[in-house]
Amino acid sequence: MGLRVGFVGVGGIAKRHLGSSSKRDDIEIVGLADVNVDIAKQMAEEFGGNVYDNAAELFDKEKPDAAVICTPPFAHGEIEEAAAERGIHMFIEKPVTVDLALAKRVKTAIDSGDVLVQVGYMFRFSKAVQKVKELLSSRKVAMVQQHYYMPGMPAKAWWAKMNKGGGQLIEQATHMLDLGRFLAGDVIGVCGRTTQAHDWTPTSDAPPKPGLCSEYPGVDIPDTTALTMTYESGALGTLSCSMVPQAKWDNGFKVVAEGLLITIDNGNASWAGEEEGSMEGGAEWHNLVYFDFIDAVKEGRKGTSVPYSEGIKSLAISVAGYASAEQGGASVNPDDLIKEAGIDL
Q: Are residues 215 and 108 in the same domain?
């Protein structure tokens, strides 16, 4: 019998992890919980497991060894606390929460429950990214440049609300901010600016179609954000992100280091300068963060590769960016915000 795993939240990203689970004979899907029971039933027909409309019932009836939590950002909190109370290990999709106050609550529960937690920052497990980290280990990093442009906003009600999804900076760009931390070290200063450049007012009463939209009622998140960052190493960084409707997706990540210019593209990497080369992320690189968690639980490891504290540190950069924007672009140290929230890392 394999590791007993329950899923909480069975939307798009959960389907990927469910598909990954089905490729291993040491994972048994025992339950799926979602407020949308119909979607949970559809996933159960494909991947197995009993269906529930809440996490606590799944945990009590199925008693899984581990839980995969793939809820929208605002739904984190009670689910993790319930799992920790029951000694259930957790794989938590990013971002871990929308604010640091809730992150403190969850971390307290995790520490008390003595459970393993892995946060789903998948880029860290790309073989190409790990090669880049090796190349940078003996070089001084000067600049980390990141951008994330999407041709519209996801047509989901929670996406339009800051207190539900945290906007693009928390919900999406966190992947790039975490990758920057992984390669260049911790950030000690963030200066941010935000704006809402697009008019999202609906022109008709027709509901938004699935996918990306160019209009939505009640949008209160910025649609364009720019950050400058100072790393503890002395490197500088930039992040620009926007969901103003335009032609196509365009994401980019570059590192300028002594003797090298490095480009990372969807888990693959290339570099030029004192060394020339390129490398792909590797087979199923985007699933390795999940598989590493499964192995950690099965092997009884003392910790994980991407513990909850790492999720908090990367979240804090986004929170610092918004805090800076509210202060007219003044520099904000993410560590100061973590300490102010009473989080002990």
A: no
Q: The domain that contains 19 carries what CATH number?
A: 3.40.50.720
In a domain, 167, yes or no: yes
On whether both 36 and 109 belong to a single domain, the answer is: yes
d(CA 95, CA 80): 13
pTM for the model: 0.97
Is omega for the bond preceding 334 within 30 degrees of 0, making it cis?
no
Q: In angstroms, rounded to a whole number, what is the distance separating the alpha carbons of residues 310 and 316?
A: 10
Would residue 39 be called left, alpha or beta, if left means φ above 0 and alpha means ψ between -120 and 50 degrees? alpha
Same domain, 56 and 72: yes
341 assigned to some structural domain: no
Model pLDDT for residues 163-216, shown as the tens digit of each residue: 999 999 999 999 999 999 999 999 999 999 999 999 999 999 888 888 999 999
Structural domain range at position 75: 3-120+287-306
